[in-house]
Write a structure and sequence with these properties.
By secondary structure, this protein is α/β, with parallel strands linked by helices. The chain has three helices and five strands, in the order αβββαβαβ. Helix 2 packs across helix 3. The radius of gyration is 34 Å and the shape is rod-shaped.
Amino acid sequence: MKFRRKPKEEVSVNLTPLIDVVFLLLIFFMVSTTFTNESHLQISLPEADGEASETQAESLEVLIGVDGGYTVNGQSLLNSQPDTLRRAIIDQAGDNRKLPFIISADAKTPHQSVVTVMDVAGKLGFAALSITTQQPAGQ
């Protein structure tokens, strides 16, 4: 007896759902990704080219060393804490907030140390802050 074979159905993959899923994933990642434009700026700090101003006989000068240590009017502080600096400034200035406040920092001093001095001086009410600089070597 001869059996008839069933005709084979053509096997195919429907690509429409696959394409839909890929497009949905693409849209999801495009919407959820944050695009950042990072740039590395190279800056050169300015040098002071003016003449030295006459300092008054009475002023408040804070020196900041390379290690971030403070000296207020020639007196070294025990530590670099803002409270210690604040107490030393109050001891030197008293109630006079009109004194010229001079900040002298080494070129390699951490920026945070200078900002801390400026912050403490601002909180105490000093408005006349100045930062000392030196003339360029070629002049």
